[in-house]
């Protein structure tokens, strides 16, 4: 993240003083860097340039329309998991033919909408889902292009809550059932088999599990071809990790090189679904210290952002670096950075060494992915504003929610 301190000890993000952003837009506030988004997307595009590759950004990581539009203008497609995400993508101007639809529970209405607009491909996660899609497509007189999402039973070595490619996980079709389900799909009148797909987990810091999964998929591609079922594309999913603390995820170029070496000589289009790797380090959460409270055993910095704004620490004990926006010469003290929500799991960071006082601003780094999209209104807390820094200018890309918005749908119905 492009964070530097100026001569006066003020923290600048992409050249803009974070204190000024807080002054203008209040806190808590998500702050994103357009420059970072462009750079990371270009790194993916360039790394895979030698091969026919469609980069379908997994918009569950950050679904702000302005971010989607920025990535779509750079050539990205998207991976969606709901009708809501489909409508977001279309509203942002993502071309339908660059949309892939994952998710274990696609409803009939979601299938109809995706068929109407003509998405690139459905990633089918079970045989019942395949049967339903064939029926829905038949009723519309359409043909649905599909991949089967295979669960390759590969250990992604990540947090158990975000591992998705093990046989105990709910995702995908068991590897051992794949050929039978493909045969069934190929015989369906309103299904066109075009690809194969997997997604083994998130925040992977090693290429080996990706390559294991890829090898298992390629073996299936060859077995299917021998039976006359020739696939056009292979979707390797997302999952490439980022650095939050001291992780050393592979560089995109190294990941690409390893993957492309396996695909050399094949005419398979490659589809990728990166989420976190594109946006995670493109954003921070700006928050203000409301109180410093010395408890009996611990010292707390109580800030105005909570687990409803950034849920990752509460849900996964995830570690996000927290830095003061203004430098103080006083000695740092050990504090737990906690939010205002009435839960003991409401923390953003524990046992941090910080020199801060009441009223100071803190930046919670690497919050661009699974921050705002996982936020909630718990404790009737309006969601934070989102702003984008682009070329030294800052603009609001999502207004701060108001309590009036939150209660409107109930207020109308008061007896
Ligand atoms: C099907 C699918 N594709 C892509 C992603 C994006 O993952 P990541 O943000 O780790 O790249 C996810 C989330 O884990 C997913 O479930
Ligand atoms: N929400 C998770 C990632 C899971 C991705 C969804 N399959 C996180 O914050 O790390």
Automatic annotation (TrEMBL):
<comment type="function">
    <text>Specifically catalyzes the decarboxylation of meso-diaminopimelate (meso-DAP) to L-lysine.</text>
</comment>
<keyword id="KW-0456">Lyase</keyword>
<keyword id="KW-0663">Pyridoxal phosphate</keyword>
<feature type="binding site">
    <location>
        <position position="370"/>
    </location>
    <ligand>
        <name>substrate</name>
    </ligand>
</feature>
<dbReference type="InterPro" id="IPR009006">
    <property type="entry name" value="Ala_racemase/Decarboxylase_C"/>
</dbReference>
<keyword id="KW-0028">Amino-acid biosynthesis</keyword>
<keyword id="KW-0210">Decarboxylase</keyword>
<dbReference type="InterPro" id="IPR022657">
    <property type="entry name" value="De-COase2_CS"/>
</dbReference>
<comment type="pathway">
    <text>Amino-acid biosynthesis; L-lysine biosynthesis via DAP pathway; L-lysine from DL-2,6-diaminopimelate: step 1/1.</text>
</comment>
<feature type="binding site">
    <location>
        <position position="370"/>
    </location>
    <ligand>
        <name>pyridoxal 5'-phosphate</name>
    </ligand>
</feature>
<comment type="subunit">
    <text>Homodimer.</text>
</comment>
<dbReference type="Pfam" id="PF02784">
    <property type="entry name" value="Orn_Arg_deC_N"/>
</dbReference>
<feature type="binding site">
    <location>
        <position position="239"/>
    </location>
    <ligand>
        <name>pyridoxal 5'-phosphate</name>
    </ligand>
</feature>
<dbReference type="GO" id="GO:0008836">
    <property type="term" value="F:diaminopimelate decarboxylase activity"/>
</dbReference>
<dbReference type="InterPro" id="IPR000183">
    <property type="entry name" value="Orn/DAP/Arg_de-COase"/>
</dbReference>
<comment type="similarity">
    <text>Belongs to the Orn/Lys/Arg decarboxylase class-II family. LysA subfamily.</text>
</comment>
<feature type="binding site">
    <location>
        <position position="312"/>
    </location>
    <ligand>
        <name>substrate</name>
    </ligand>
</feature>
<feature type="binding site">
    <location>
        <position position="276"/>
    </location>
    <ligand>
        <name>substrate</name>
    </ligand>
</feature>
<feature type="binding site">
    <location>
        <begin position="273"/>
        <end position="276"/>
    </location>
    <ligand>
        <name>pyridoxal 5'-phosphate</name>
    </ligand>
</feature>
<dbReference type="InterPro" id="IPR022643">
    <property type="entry name" value="De-COase2_C"/>
</dbReference>
<feature type="domain" description="Orn/DAP/Arg decarboxylase 2 N-terminal">
    <location>
        <begin position="36"/>
        <end position="279"/>
    </location>
</feature>
<feature type="binding site">
    <location>
        <position position="343"/>
    </location>
    <ligand>
        <name>substrate</name>
    </ligand>
</feature>
<feature type="modified residue" description="N6-(pyridoxal phosphate)lysine">
    <location>
        <position position="60"/>
    </location>
</feature>
<keyword id="KW-0457">Lysine biosynthesis</keyword>
<dbReference type="InterPro" id="IPR022644">
    <property type="entry name" value="De-COase2_N"/>
</dbReference>
<feature type="binding site">
    <location>
        <position position="316"/>
    </location>
    <ligand>
        <name>substrate</name>
    </ligand>
</feature>
<feature type="domain" description="Orn/DAP/Arg decarboxylase 2 C-terminal">
    <location>
        <begin position="29"/>
        <end position="368"/>
    </location>
</feature>
<protein>
    <recommendedName>
        <fullName>Diaminopimelate decarboxylase</fullName>
        <ecNumber>4.1.1.20</ecNumber>
    </recommendedName>
</protein>
<dbReference type="Pfam" id="PF00278">
    <property type="entry name" value="Orn_DAP_Arg_deC"/>
</dbReference>
<dbReference type="InterPro" id="IPR002986">
    <property type="entry name" value="DAP_deCOOHase_LysA"/>
</dbReference>
<dbReference type="InterPro" id="IPR029066">
    <property type="entry name" value="PLP-binding_barrel"/>
</dbReference>
<dbReference type="InterPro" id="IPR022653">
    <property type="entry name" value="De-COase2_pyr-phos_BS"/>
</dbReference>
